[in-house]
């Protein structure tokens, strides 16, 4: 018996797991289960179950969901050990308060999800708020969800291109770091939609934004200057990786500030990869003459097509070591762990007093969309890839109020721009912060008694393992 069998009230289906049913009949609910299960399920839950639209249930669990199940069981086991109980027996003895039955169709059975009783939930909460907090030295309270606005991002990129002395394995990574930060800021996408995700079940899959997800277009209006546009398709959004449709966001060039221009960074990578179609390369396409190409008569746009063999090649790629030195890997996408590490380093060296993470840009997009009176919840959810507005309110909304309450009370003109900046990392930046330890500080650190003791314990443990 597995741990999942402890909470599964359904007997084995007449068809094995994964076995297909050729019947064309409608979905049927099977309530021929143990009477003990029926005793603990309220009648109103059974009535709601009969009205459930089974067609909306997934036929199989995604890899990320299975990994989440394993992680949940690890946390449950840790809690059980904290109260000195065996995890399986403790789960079996818990009295369900509500039981959502994932009814099965003839092709197999779905799992069930049980919630703990009020008494068990109270015990778990008490353990987390006392013993667990004390053991790990945790401080209860709401964590400030900092955001990074355009001023902070510009300051970071200015340091990145002007003062950063970091040595990258290949200089392409310097361009990729800046380009990815701009793509995250201008699309509001999750990091896993642009580079290879670190999520369980996806890590190592080789899935990332590829050249086939982008479309470079030259717009030549009847009046005005030509303008380059970049249509970005978010194909690998969370929970939508297997769906054929994907949202597309249009970016445009910023001639006034090349450091903040997504088109410039894309062109640098595309020309380095020789990604454009031979037809355009034969016509003399170069970064300096893109605006001079003529459109077809009667049209105002021209798409710069890419080579077919480049459609599935990731744009942002990792490096590899060869006999001739270090070079860009032709197929391996850049992992999210690499970008998280480099982003944190860049934020620290740029003088940010709090750790910078790529998610700070996504929170800023959500905050600005909420403040924009012309953008509704539905549009914001579409851009951020949320199924419900509650997700933003619960996980993205900053604890810093961006409304000038003082001006509202006094009836004065609002200083909303100043108030908004207080919730960002802009005013919490000090370019003069030390970037590394001095030699004296390093020497004192190596002489620290706690550090010496910890190293001795580590070496002793290593010897025990080797023995």
Secondary-structure map:
Blueprint: H1 35-40, H2 43-50, H3 63-82, H4 87-93, E1 99-101, E2 112-114, H5 118-136, H6 150-162, H7 172-187, E3 214-219, E4 227-234, E5 247-252, H8 262-272, H9 278-282, E6 301-304, E7 317-322, E8 325-333, H10 336-349, H11 359-371, H12 377-384, H13 389-395, H14 405-410, H15 416-422, H16 439-446, H17 449-466
Antiparallel strand pairs: 1-2, 3-4, 3-6, 4-5, 7-8
Task: Give the structure's gist in a few sentences.
This protein has helices at residues 35-40, 43-50, 63-82, 87-93, 118-136, 150-162, 172-187, 262-272, 278-282, 336-349, 359-371, 377-384, 389-395, 405-410, 416-422, 439-446, 449-466; strands at residues 99-101, 112-114, 214-219, 227-234, 247-252, 301-304, 317-322, 325-333.
Describe this structure in words.
With 467 residues, the chain is of the alpha+beta class. It has three domains: 5-136, no CATH class; 142-436; 441-467. It has 17 helices and eight strands. It has helices at 35-40, 43-50, 63-82, 87-93, 118-136, 150-162, 172-187, 262-272, 278-282, 336-349, 359-371, 377-384, 389-395, 405-410, 416-422, 439-446, 449-466; strands at 99-101, 112-114, 214-219, 227-234, 247-252, 301-304, 317-322, 325-333. The protein has a four-stranded antiparallel β-sheet with strand order 5-4-3-6, with no helix packed on it. A two-stranded antiparallel ribbon has the order 1-2. The chain has a two-stranded antiparallel ribbon with strand order 7-8. A hairpin with a 2-residue loop joins strand 7 and strand 8 (325-333). It is globular and about 80 Å long. It starts with 34 loop residues before the first helix and ends with a helix. Mean pLDDT is 75; it is low at 1-38, 54-59 and 95-118.
């Amino acid at each position: 018996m597995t741990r999942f069998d402890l909470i599964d009230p359904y007997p084995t289906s007449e068809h094995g797991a994964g076995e297909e049913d050729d019947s064309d009949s409608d979905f049927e609910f099977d309530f021929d289960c143990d009477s003990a299960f029926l005793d603990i399920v309220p009648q109103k839950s059974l009535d709601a179950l009969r009205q459930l639209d089974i067609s909306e249930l997934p036929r199989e669990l995604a890899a990320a969901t299975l990994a989440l199940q394993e992680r949940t069981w690890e946390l449950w086991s840790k809690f059980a050990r904290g109260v000195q109980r065996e995890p399986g027996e403790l789960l079996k003895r818990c009295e369900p308060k509500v039981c959502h039955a994932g009814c099965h169709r003839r092709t197999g059975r779905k799992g069930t999800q049980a919630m703990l009783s009020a008494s068990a939930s109270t015990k778990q909460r008490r353990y987390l708020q006392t013993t667990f907090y004390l053991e790990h030295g945790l401080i209860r309270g709401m964590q400030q969800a900092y955001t990074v606005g355009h001023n902070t991002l510009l300051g970071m990129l200015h340091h990145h291109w002007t003062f950063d002395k970091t040595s990258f394995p290949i200089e392409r990574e310097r361009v990729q770091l800046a380009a990815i930060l701009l793509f995250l800021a201008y699309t509001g996408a999750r990091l896993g939609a642009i580079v290879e995700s670190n999520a369980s079940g996806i890590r190592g899959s080789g899935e990332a934004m590829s050249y086939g997800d982008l479309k470079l277009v030259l717009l030549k209006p009847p009046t005005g200057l030509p303008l380059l546009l970049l249509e970005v398709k978010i194909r690998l959004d969370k929970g939508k990786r297997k769906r054929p449709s994907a949202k597309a966001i249009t970016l445009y060039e910023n001639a006034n500030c090349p450091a903040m221009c997504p088109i410039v960074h894309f062109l640098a990578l595309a020309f380095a990869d020789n990604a454009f179609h031979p037809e355009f390369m034969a016509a003399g396409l170069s970064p300096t003459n893109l605006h001079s190409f003529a459109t077809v008569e009667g049209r105002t746009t021209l798409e710069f097509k890419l080579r077919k063999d480049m459609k599935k090649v990731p744009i942002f790629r990792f490096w590899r070591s060869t006999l001739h030195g270090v070079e860009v890997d032709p197929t391996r996408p850049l992992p999210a762990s690499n970008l998280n590490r480099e982003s944190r380093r860049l934020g620290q060296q740029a003088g940010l007093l709090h750790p910078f993470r790529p998610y700070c840009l996504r929170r800023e997009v959500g905050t600005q969309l909420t403040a924009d009176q012309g953008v509704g919840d539905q549009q914001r959810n579409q851009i951020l890839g949320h199924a419900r507005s509650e997700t933003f309110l619960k996980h993205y909304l900053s604890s810093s109020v961006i409304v000038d309450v003082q001006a509202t009370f006094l009836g004065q003109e609002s200083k909303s721009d100043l108030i908004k900046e207080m919730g960002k990392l802009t005013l919490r930046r000090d370019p003069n912060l030390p970037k590394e330890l001095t030699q004296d500080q390093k020497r004192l650190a190596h002489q620290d008694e706690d550090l010496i003791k910890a190293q001795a314990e580590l070496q002793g443990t290593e010897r025990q393992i080797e023995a």
